[in-house]
Amino acid sequence: MSALDPDVVAKVGEWVRYADEDLAYAQHGLGMEERCPFRLVAYHAQQCAEKYLKSYLVLTGTDFPYTHDIERLISLCASAGASTDQLVEAAELTPYAVFARYPGETDEIGRADAESAVELAATVKQAVRQLLADAGMNEL
Question: How much is the pTM?
Answer without folding.
Answer: 0.93
